[in-house]
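hey
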């Protein structure tokens, strides 16, 4: 990813595929968010993660 691409993503803000996180979030909370994003289009990861 080019720096200009990352800057564009940041400039566009959060959406269903981009979510900004603070560096002090709990690992479990971050894992749930990652699973939710992966499952956005109905993936099997959540079932195997539980």
């Amino acid at each position: 990813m080019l720096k200009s691409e990352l800057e564009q993503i940041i400039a566009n803000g959060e959406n269903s595929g981009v979510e900004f996180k603070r560096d002090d979030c709990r690992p479990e909370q971050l894992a749930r968010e990652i699973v939710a994003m992966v499952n956005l289009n109905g993936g099997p990861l959540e079932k195997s993660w539980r």
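The radius of gyration is 13 Å. Residues 27-38 form the longest helix (12 residues).
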